[in-house]
Design brief:
The chain is of the alpha+beta class. 51% of the residues lie in helices and 23% in strands.
């Protein structure tokens, strides 16, 4: 049991290290949230310190980038972070014309709102966000 817990901890640390490199900001200086909604969901990231302008700008740059990339069906960044294509991403790529990605700045970071009217795309978006929640050990609200 202890060995299993140690292995899981090491795997999570490795993912967080890859995430910091790919996203361009520290997971320790920021808070991520993955939210589900009736029409899709959202990816939100904020700097823990409202005066941390470096993290705030890095968050906004990353979220702008992934909104554009996801709209093109490019999920290379989450694949690099998790070392596997997240659940739902393949379907999101196929159904990209039915999914809208909107980036918006927030006070301490940003948000990518993901919306769709297509039931298959909605299922894929929800599976993608649930994968993120599970992998990053966050709660959806």
């Amino acid at each position: 049991m202890i060995f299993t817990l140690m292995l899981l901890f090491q795997m999570n640390c490795a993912m967080e290290h890859r995430g910091d490199a790919v996203m361009g900001f520290s997971h320790e200086a920021t808070t991520q949230a993955f939210k589900l909604s009736d029409d899709g969901g959202a990816i939100e990231v904020v700097a823990n310190d409202p005066k941390d302008s470096k993290s705030i700008e890095a968050i906004r740059a990353h979220l702008r980038e992934i909104a554009k990339a996801f709209a093109k069906g490019d999920f290379a960044k989450p694949k690099a972070i998790h070392e596997e294509l997240p659940d739902g991403a393949a379907e999101m790529r196929e159904l990209r014309a039915a999914i809208k990605y909107d980036f918006a700045e927030t006070g301490r970071g940003g948000r990518v709102r993901i919306t769709t009217n297509d039931p298959k795309a909605l299922d894929a978006v929800h599976r993608f966000l649930k994968f993120q929640i599970r992998e990053h050990h966050t709660e959806h609200r």
